[in-house]
Amino acid sequence: MLRWFEILGRSKFRQSLWYVDGFAGPGEYTNSPAGSPVAAISSASEALQSAGAQWKAGKIHCVFIEQDAKRFDHLRNKLGTDAGNPQMEIHFFNLPFVDGVAALKIQIPNPFSPASPLFAFIDPFGAKGVPFADIKDLLSRDAAEVLINFDSDGIGRIFRAEEAANHEVILNEVFGDDSWKTELARHRASHELYRGVLDLYKQKLRALPNVRYVFAFEMRSAKNTIDYHLVFASQHHLGLEKMKEAMKTIAKNGDYCFSDAHLNQSTMFSFDDPSAYSPQLFEQFRGRTVKYQELNDYALNETPFTNPKSMLKDLEEKSLVQVNSNDSKRRKGTFNEEKLINITFQQGV
User: What is the mean pLDDT of the segment spanning 35-54?
Assistant: First the structure.
């Protein structure tokens, strides 16, 4: 969250910044003394302090929604109601996620009228409680981004349990329609089903108007077991770029490893090994001539990288692409976006 506050705080003139934690919890756990609310407050405070006179935005509003009364009381006692900075305000809602967002919409001020930059962290306990209609509503605003803890495993189990788990009601809510009936029925093995659940959810997000950037981080523990998926969605490439940079930092710290959560990808990825992904890029665009922006969007959405340059360098060294540029002095393996005309992918090896 620190980079989000820093970037928008120095660029969004007089606009308030809103962080919404949809399942805030108690603010601390036995194995984590600083839960997401504490981390958000800390990041907001650090961003304000480091920016100083360069801060251009309005106030930072941190919204914490928690349904459970005991967890809610613990959270309020831990955070208090005063953020300790006149540039910050804290809002609490002892409500389910959906009702909390609805209550936020009618309070003054709120991030919806007028639309303000908003980052929503949605971390439910299980597969229920996050209707796709509400995610769609959040992402309909130009400056909104979401990070969702998506329980593909739990959703897959609900699909398999059928009526015993009230699956039609729950899955219609999760995906926003009944397309899951045919899409998920294709997958027989459990691991394929869970990947299929995630892939369908990403497809639904990408089908939303102007939501061009969606990426799923598969969070694995040190024992290489899948803990959960974090699904990020935004209308802006910079949001996904910064999210990937944050994940790269976590990976280097050794707390988690990641895979890219593709339907046919189960191996761990390296943020520094373009040769592992350049064949994928080549196959996607084989035989085509494309603009750099299309390649950049593909790299953001389908690979661990924030741009395609390292993969293009690998492909150019193998004579698999031809670069058309306005730069007569261009060196092989370099890609100046302002001077690139297009890139042609060969038909084959």
Answer: 93
